[in-house]
């Protein structure tokens, strides 16, 4: 993954930067926040599974951005097995401006996470890194403000052998659906 990011960053930074910005995606720094829900291991989106995400990024061209985020998944699971996960992510965001106010985008990156997993009263701490990817749509509300809807998948894995009775699975795909705001400077 890191080998793929270096050429993409080089092209983005050294490539032509045209004066037009379709879809309202000017070049420069932006910050944002997302709120939404998630489901674990193919389950259902549950009202209790809220996530919060803060992000900062640089729009290097109308078609490419580099982004960092902090995501807090809170606590999820059941009384017999539960987890709390949060972490930092870094991603490349490719976008396709459709109009002056609408753009589609896809992102992919890496997520460095910490988690507390409890199975039948036995609690273990884990930290790891894993890929994530997603897609969304952004609507430009004003010159600086954008509204986005986004789907992402995080592929979280932990060592199930660390428990006296291993859980059913030691991988947890977290599917997220968020609504957010992005402010460009």
Quick summary:
With 185 residues, the chain is mainly beta. The protein has a single domain, classed as Porin, CATH 2.40.160.20.
Task: Characterize the structure shown.
With 185 residues, the protein is mainly beta. It has one domain (29-184): Porin (Beta Barrel), CATH 2.40.160.20. 7% of the residues lie in helices and 65% in strands.
List the helices and strands and how they pair.
Blueprint: H1 2-14, E1 28-40, E2 50-61, E3 64-77, E4 81-97, E5 102-119, E6 122-140, E7 145-157, E8 171-184
Antiparallel strand pairs: 1-2, 1-8, 2-3, 3-4, 4-5, 5-6, 6-7, 7-8
The CATH class is identified as Mainly Beta
Main β sheet profile: 8 strands, antiparallel, barrel
The strand order across the widest sheet is 1-2-3-4-5-6-7-8
CATH topology: Porin
Shape: elongated
CATH architecture: Beta Barrel
Summing up helix and strand content along with how strands pair, one would put the structural category as: mainly beta
Average pLDDT works out at: 79
**Percentage of β-strand residues:** over 45%
Question: How large is the radius of gyration?
Answer: 18 Å
Helix content, binned percent = under 10%
Number of helical segments with 4 or more residues? 1
Distance between the termini: 29 Å
